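Lab notebook, bench 4. Still working through the backlog of constructs that have no structural model yet. Next entry is a single chain of 381 residues. Request: give me the structure tokens for it.
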Amino acid sequence: MPAQYLHILGALKAFNRVSGGTFPLDYKAFFAGAQGPDIFYHNQRTRPLAVSLGSLLHRRDYGFFSSGAIDYVLSGCAFPHNGDSNTGKIESSSINLSRNFLISYLAGFLSHGILDRVFHPFIIYASFFPDNKHSPVPPGRFHPFFERILDFIFMDEFSSGIFSDSGFQETSGRIVDLDVDSFLNFSPVELGLLEDFFYEVFRNVYPEKTLSDANLRLRLKNSFSDSLWFYYVTNPFYSDLSKSSEVFKSRYKEEINWTLVSLIHPQSLISGVDWFNSQKKVWLNPSTGEESDSSLYDLFDRAVKGIEIIYKAFFDFVSGRVPPEKENLKDFAFLIGNTSLSLSDSQGKPGVPVFFKSDFYPLDVEFMHQVDLRYYWWNET
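Model written out:
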């Protein structure tokens, strides 16, 4: 679950390389889709929860879910409710907009699992703290905190100019210039399309987990509302340390705490830390122990190339060059893969962290540095 903006950057970079401007992407849907099943993890406020759906998609069958989603979107099943409620006629313009919205969302969604599988072993190796007796920071805070460090440094390194065709505010390469209110939000019609999309595909791909769940639709609604609240509250445009904290406080409406600090994007990182692992320090796959000296630049390039392969196959379906028939969809599912999006053992089953190096980075020192910055910012008058 590399946090929001690394997923957007990877998906957008791959799309720009593959599309050549031939598909009219709905960027808002695309950026939201790139969050993948993480939206279900953000459902922490409203019950019944959909967290189990996020865990299910992260653990197994992401490829089968993706091919089932393609079948749903391209078969026409997605659009029967877009007609005029009085005449029953379905407007072609409405169908085209809905189809483009879901194709764009699905394109973003497809990228998520590829980037997760590439980055998660490194993230877990460098941020897994089985216990934290020598630091006041709760161990579970380091993983999301490190992911937001990655967002920060990758936006700083790669974002300038990459959003130029998206119709959103161009950024200077600083994450605090990106106002996500402009794209991580949806109309009731769009939310209805997403609800139907996930409801049908979950029931088709994971029937043993979802067919008997009378609350499935409500879980989906709750995950959308909680996710949008989460993106609204953590919008880096309003957590910029150079701005007053008053606007942020009016959005969050609670007191600052360490959990919040781990979920806000950091600023003014301690100097001298090789966050990109440019020096190629050796690290281990936390589950298998396999050695690697890959830098974050290497991992990003590997992820983007993997997403490009997926996009070429996906847009063959969209263009009609390849029909979305059963065998073709099965091949696509295996192209994406059905193993865990986090760690897999040598047999491809979900793995557990055995190898890790909690001092690979000074995450505990950086976290307390951010705590100091945030509490000072919060209490400024």
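Notes after review: The longest strand covers residues 283-284. Residues 92-127 form the longest helix (36 residues). Flag for follow-up if needed.
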